[in-house]
Automatic annotation (TrEMBL):
Alphabetical keyword list: Bacterial flagellum biogenesis, Cell projection, Chaperone, Cilium, Cytoplasm, Flagellum
Top-level taxon of origin: Bacteria
SUPFAM superfamilies with a match to the protein in the record: Flagellar export chaperone FliS
Keyword Flavoprotein: no
UniProt xrefs under NCBIfam families: fliS (TIGR00208)
GO cellular component, one term: cytosol
GO term, biological process aspect, one: bacterial-type flagellum assembly
Compartments it resides in: Cytoplasm, Cytosol
A UniProt-annotated Pfam family: FliS
Protein name: Flagellar secretion chaperone FliS
CDD domains: FliS (cd16098)
Amino acid sequence: MGYASVLSRDPAQTYRQVDLAGRTANADGPALVQLLYEELCHALRVAAWAAENKKFAVKSERVTRATAILFALEANLDFEKGGEVSTTLARVYAGARKQVIEASLGHDGAQFRQVADTLAEIAEAWRMARAA
């Protein structure tokens, strides 16, 4: 019933929710991090579109999602095992959150896209490290 009520409003969003639930069901830690990066970049790109098209509710929802993902990524850093990499990522996540919040105050999507592009580079490095 939950999906059916959402489906009538936004079939694409329903598909994404079902797809994400399916991919996270059996994912290990590194796979979940990769999924978080994908969702984060997607949320930022949708926020950029929403800002430019004055879809304020969508922008707000995507900014909230992106911020929550950034907090989740930072909260799960292992500073003992990760050392300097974890410290650097913590700074990147904090900086990204600041940029996202600043971007949320305006109607220009460029700053959202800039953050998404930066994080997409990290996501690609993460994907390559997992594949190795």
